[in-house]
Every structure is written in structure tokens, then in C-alpha cells.
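During the reporting period, our protein records have gained a C-alpha cell line. One record among many is quoted in full directly below:
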Amino acid sequence: MLHPDWIVPEWPAPQTVCAVVTTRAGGVSQGRWGHDGGGGMNLGAAAGDNDDLVRANHERLQALLPSPPRWLRQQHGARVVDLDALMPRADDDDGYQRGNANWLGAVAQADAALTMTPGVVAAVQVADCLPVLLTDAQGRAVAAVHAGWRGLAAGVIQNAVVAMRLRLSAPSAHVLAWLGPAIGPLHFEVGTEVLAAMQARLPDAALAFAPVSAGKYRADLFALARQALQQAGVAQIHGGGLCTYSDPRRFYSFRRDRITGRHAALVWRTE
């Protein structure tokens, strides 16, 4: 059973599409990776946490899923990988290798993954960056996207939508999107370089930036993601608004704490 504090997306996806975002709750990590003085669900292998506790968290998560999540080596880029075109490694048990924070199950260096195969779990890790989940109206394909500002500026969301439609052989396929928790617009302070990078990709990007002082702005990742989705022809957009920075009880936040854990956003199809 999923932990009651975890987030199950509210979106009109077909019943064959399953999705969840973990929170701090439900694990065994302690200290700054814990939860209300108890066990935290840190899934980050390179977040400074105890290796054995991170492994135990992964085992807890994997027990609730149809297969081990297909983790990515996230680079804040725009590459999308088709999980169905990749063969799992023979040594990929739970995706974690003790002692060196390497992901045996990291199928590729990418920031988005899609699949059409039932039971294959697309997954991204986040701690302020925005997780975006996608499916088509018939639930034939699903995708998970890691969208920080660099990925947004590089076009990772648009690339994921294009890749899904290409895989479906349907250039006009009706795609649905759900925006998970991320750092909110009241706390994400950035410089002019971020505004410029976004304006190069999104014509209306300036609408998502509020001036704070000379050369400083507060950026709204949710609004930028909606612009990116709309640019890709996605009109049905759900979720958004849960701020990781302002809710330390529930969420890890890299911008707030620097040394912190990682959440997972996961999506898969059933038969």
C-alpha cells in the first residue's frame, strides 16, 4: 500500500495509467534526510545519506511497483530516452550499487523517459526541480520528465511530447500532463541569465518572472512548464502549485537545505 502522504496525481488519465510521487515520509533515513524525527524516504544515492538506509528505501518503493524503476543519469538537459528500446542489465537487481553511488539501473544519460510497455516504470528524481508526467488520452504511452530551469530552457518538455507522439505514430495525439511538486515562485530567485535562457525558448517567458531587485527575479517553474506544454500542443495540463521549499515537513528542497534527499516521480501502464 502506498504511504498516505505520497502524492497520487489527480488527472483524467485512463485507469490503466498509474503514477505516484514520493515525499519525505515512508522510509528509514534519519537526520536531515528523515521525516518529523522519524524515517525519511530519501531515494538519492548521492545525497550524503547512509548507503544502507537509501537501499532500504529503494526496496520499500520497489515492493510497491510492478518492476524496478528505470532510473536515469539526469543531467539537466533535454534528452529523452525510449525505455522500450533499451535492454535491462543482467546485474540490475534494485538499481543501487553500494558504496559508490552508481546506478546500475541507470539506463541512459537523459532527463526524460517514455514507455509503451505495461509494467515498465519510468522515473525521475527531484528536490526542487519540477517532475512532469505525461500520457496520451488512450493511455498507450507514459513518460516522466525532470524539468529544472536548465531542462526547461533546453526544451526537455517539448522533446518528451514530440517523442511520445512519434512513438505513437500520431503527430496530433492528445497528450495529458500533470505537474508535480517543485520550488514555488515565491522562493525561486534567479538572475538575468535564467530569464534570457527562457525567453530564447518561450516567447512569453517574461510573464513567469517577477522582478525582485536589480538583475534578480522570482521565477515560476509551473508557469514556464505550462508555456512549454502549450508550445508543444498540450492543452490539458493538471497539477502544479505544491512548493517543495515552503513545506519542509513534507518535501526535500535543495535550494532550502543544500544537503537533502530526493523524491521520485513514477509512472507506468498496466495491462
Remarks:
- The chain has one domain: 17-183+235-269.
- Confidence is low (pLDDT under 50) at residues 89-104.
- The two ends are 20 Å apart (CA to CA).
- DSSP finds six helices and twelve strands in the chain.
